[in-house]
Amino acid sequence: MRSQRMNLLAVAALFLFTAGISLHAQVSLISTGAVWKYLDTGADQGTDWVGLTFNDNAWSSGPAPLGYSTDGDTEYATTNSFGGDDTNKIPTYYYRHTINIPNPSTITNLRAQLMRDDGALVYLNATEVHRVNMPTGEVVFTNFAIGSAVSGADETALFPFNIDASLLVSGDNVIAVEIHQVSATSS
Question: Which tens digits make up the pLDDT trace of 9-35?
């Protein structure tokens, strides 16, 4: 089976997307340094931001990797704001990238890998496809990730998951990722 691959790095979140298309090929859907739309203001985006028709023209954009580091250990092509000060950081960051898939019926499987610090929700065309280190049920912009802060080797590890290829549509498709910090003092 052929695979397509996409990369996203957002607040120490790397999203690697692989799609099976035909025999023995692998194609990148989104390159490692792709430009992403992002919102790092702490503003509530509700739920519409994950959809195809959401207008993100007012959002900032920059190449991946995107994020911030208060310990200086991580380099980012695009640095996000972490908020007012070290004791009151923004809990949630939003990222969007649009990819065009002319014929989604040729894609038989999707595989992704995510590097995140601390929690994440991943959406494809407004459907949640992955959740890690987040509570069950509805998540709002003030929710922090659950558990302890991601640290050590887990900060740069890629964690794989599958996505239902039937969620793809002909034409534009939106990958949306929200990253949640574990606390208002998280690095």
Answer: 333 333 445 555 555 466 667 777 889
